[in-house]
Amino acid sequence: MEYMGIEPGRIHFSWISSAEATKFVDVVNEVTSTVKALGPRKSFVKTPLTTAKNKAA
Amino acid sequence: MLSYNEKIRHIAKKILAEGKVEIVIGYRRGTLPMINEPCFIKHPEDVTRLIWDRHCGINLTNYLTQRKERIGIIAKGCDSRNIITHIIENKIKREQLVIIGVPCKGMIDRHKIASQFEEEIQKVKEDGDKIVVTGGGIEKIWKLSDVLQENCIICTHRNPVIYDELVAEPVAEQKDVNRYEDIRRIERLSPAEKAEFFDDLLASCIRCYACRNVCPLCYCDTCFVDGSQPQWVGKSQDPTDIRTFHFLRAFHCAGRCTDCGSCERACPMGIKVRTLTKKLEKDCLELFNWEAGIDLEQRPPLTTYNPNDPDDTFR
Amino acid sequence: MNVIKIDKKTWTEGIGRLQGFYRLIGPVKDGDFYQFKALEKGESPDFSMLNTRLSPKSIIYPQSEVMFEYSLDETRDDCHVIKEIQVEYSPQVVFGIRPCDAKAFLLVQRNFETPEYKDPYWIRLYETTALIGLACNTPCSTCFCVDAGSGPFNDAGLDILLIDAGEYYYARVNTAKGEKILKDSGWSEETETKDAELAIENLKQAAENRITARISTDRLKEKGVPDLFNAPFWEDVAFACINCGTCTYVCPTCWCFDIQDEVRGTDGVRMRNWDSCMYPLFTLHGSGHNPRDAKTKRLRQRFMHKLKYYVDKYNDGIQCVGCGRCINLCPVNIDIRKICEAMNGFEPEQKSI
Q: Which residues of chain C lie closer than 8 angstroms to B138, CB-CB?
């Protein structure tokens, strides 16, 4: 994913057991804060359809 | 490699005549320079149509998928590795096949030559370690090693890894090959630079799906880009949809791709599609010490769990 | 029909002047090959190409084209109303169309502009576009335009045909649109039409003599559809086919499309995208049944359409202009010349080719 140009920190993988409530909270907080810090994605976002109209024409 | 012809025809004739196989899959002479046409032979007397030269780059394993008859197939190193992958993935049975192994010294990159030749190419001739290209009143000579397909230049499995007959003595394998320099260069880019790099790489894609359809790994009945219930990917020329197709297709080839180069060879727009698949091939080697299509007995890394598997991405 | 002579020294000047009136499109080198692109200010079309990688059909018939838009926002008055897209069609001029590709527009027109049915999108773009051709002095070995009803100097479908004669171009004007462009450009060196036509005829003969690729189409019409349909050679010619869309997408005469809706949030558009008869989805029915469920059937369809159904329906040659792109770009060397010969020469009792 990083190879495609997606910033490190935007995608997280975690293994959390159903017994690990505190770990779950920690991970969610961490994910949201790192992603918020990165801000909205710039690439790999589809152009809104209204502006993409017939650009080839 | 031109001398292989006699031997290939001899073996094909023998296995057809003895009834060991019903068809032999190989190549016949193309109608243009630098391209041959995959074909099948049913009758022993037709084997003279089979040819072998430096323009047999299309991976023939693609033509085996789900076939029911007994088949003789001509296989260079990469084709043989894909045959193994096909057997592991239950797309063909080993007992159905007589594999005619061909030690390979690399295939000519037709895009590379065409892009360096201003006129129309009319004739291409091999002359020792040189290749002579003529057309439009001009002649150009290249060293063979300079105009091979990129994947052949860095190939480390030139000899078939599985075969029933071998048409010639094995060739020397290339040692100390720097396989991943181009991938490392991309890995070093910043995220924004990477995104821009792939925008440029895929800008000319026309979504003809030649890369996918020529690939022996892409045998799904309905590809994710074609499905409409649900529809995963838009079907227009939207750059994001085009990127989605290419990246996801590459992911589907992880741990299976043998870097045979057919995708790049097939692309009518000359896109370097291997830039995507090779990254995953590199990762599989570095993370799981895995090369696809070497061993019939070993399970691919993405279908097995090993306690020693790296898990740095998990927290 | 008159001919003028354009001194190459005044060429860029005229292009510059035209840029004030029209949007200009022409072949430019893009990486390893040539493509038709909008010309920037001060940019001239690059005529050193043999031909462009992709055909110019997308100039009039874009690969993806939005036709309608709608809103799903129920607070709006026009919610759920499908409205035709509003597009500004400014006049444009395309330079450097090869005669084969120009003829292709006339074939495609058969599909988009018929007495019963008129495709507004295609027609509007076609009518606002002027086509300036460039005769082929050096046709390639895969060009069979002459046998496909065109030719290296054919001006069918062109507003102006340019002929490169060394120091200058001859420009043969065919239409009022062409006249207007010449007037706007300022190129106006009159020449004795008779002399010019003679010079053009000589160049044309030389070019036609260079054509080596031949196909025979004379007997396609008399063949029976079921005979050709059931001919045994299809299995052999279709074996190598990987069912990609390359041949159909690079073809200047393939016109099929698929209609898709795309919605984002409450904004939706209905668009059409090129489709290909090589794809299994092209004929997949809602029931799950697919009448062309094998690649041999799909390949057969492409060639039967171009070389038989079209021939029978319009009685005006084949649906191919002989540009040779599909031959050059097919990843596995499926060659329409070979298939046309097989079809044209087919006799029902014949066992195989």
A: none
Last residue of a domain, one of C185, C210, C235: C210
Q: In terms of residues, how long is chain B?
A: 315
DSSP annotation of B68 reads -
User: Does the distance separating the beta carbons of C54 and B206 come in below 8 Å?
Assistant: yes
B305–A contact, CB cutoff 8 A: no
| Chain-chain contact of A50 with C267 (C-beta, under 8 angstroms) | yes
State both tokens at C314: 């319009």
- Do C249 and C274 contact (CB within 8 A), yes or no? yes
Q: Tell me, what DSSP letter sits at residue B171?
A: P
Query: Over the stretch B260-283, which tens digit does the pLDDT of each residue have?
Result: 999 999 999 999 999 999 999 999
Token couple for B286: 């570095």
Q: How many CB pairs under 8 A join B and C?
A: 108
Minimal C-alpha gap between A36 and chain B (Å): 17
Judge: C31–B204 Cβ closer than 8 Å, yes or no: yes
Q: Distance (Å, rounded) from C-alpha C137 to C-alpha C123? A: 31
Alpha carbon distance C4, C172 (integer Å): 7
Pick B214's closest partner by Cβ from C50, C236, C242: C242
Whether C54 and C85 share a structural domain: yes
Q: Both C245 and C297 in a single domain?
A: yes
Q: What is the DSSP-derived secondary structure letter of residue B173?
A: P
ipTM surpassing 0.95, yes or no?
no
Query: What distances in angstroms separate CA B241 from CA B236, B279, C51, C78, one per listed residue?
Result: 7, 20, 29, 29
Query: Per the structure, how many domains does chain C have?
Result: 2
Cα–Cα distance measured from residue C48 to residue B120, given in angstroms and rounded to the nearest whole number: 12
Q: How far apart (Å, rounded) are the C-alpha atoms in residues B269 and C240?
A: 20
- CB contact C66 to A (< 8 Å): yes
Task: Write the pLDDT tens digit of every residue in C192-217.
Answer: 778 888 999 999 999 999 999 999 99
Q: Structural domain of residue C174, as residue ranges? A: 3-60+67-210
